[in-house]
Design a protein that fits this description.
Elements (H helix, E strand, L loop, with lengths): L1 E2 L4 H27 L3 H34 L8 H26 L4 H29 L4 E2 L3 H7 L1
Antiparallel strand pairs: 1-2
Length: about 160
């Protein structure tokens, strides 16, 4: 049996739902924790969301491709220990993307930005784990009956 990854359209669907739900959940928490107005929190988190969406698309595609190649497994069949590794690696990379945004947009110094980023990363890591478990159950990756090379030639 050969495996395929999520299509670019499916990956976009997944990313948009992840970010939209994340904004709805995290914006009020960030506003409360930072004592910022809701519209300020929403603007900052939307900018962070756009930055991290670009990172997420690249990271998830590469992680899924590596997993399919080395483990012969699709993302929706990922065991929990690999889900935890995936989530932590994703969030570490996201911090590298988002910390400069916090410094520039939220007018924080690097130490404050790192603390804010660690807090956001902790919240998003837990949310990311739960979201992807649910998403994979609701929209599992379909198996291909023909090799990937055959699929590439047919397109």
């Amino acid at each position: 049996m050969h495996y395929v990854q999520r299509t670019p359209r499916e990956r976009l669907h997944q990313t948009l739902w992840f970010e939209a739900l994340g904004l709805c959940l995290v914006t009020p928490l960030y506003g409360w924790a930072s004592a910022r107005a809701l519209h300020e929190s929403c603007s900052l988190l939307a900018l962070l969301s756009l930055s991290v969406m670009a990172w997420s698309a690249a990271f998830n595609t590469l992680f899924d491709a590596g997993e399919a190649r080395w483990c012969a497994r699709v993302a929706s069949e990922r065991p929990h220990r690999v889900r935890i590794l995936h989530t932590l690696a994703h969030e570490l990379g996201a911090m590298l993307v988002s910390c400069p945004v916090l410094v520039l947009w939220a007018d924080l110094d690097w130490a404050e930005a790192l603390v804010a980023d660690l807090a956001l990363t902790t919240v998003y890591a837990a949310y990311g784990y739960a979201f992807h478990c649910c998403y994979d159950r609701l929209r599992p990756v379909r198996r291909a009956a023909v090799p990937l090379t055959v699929l590439a030639v047919r397109r």
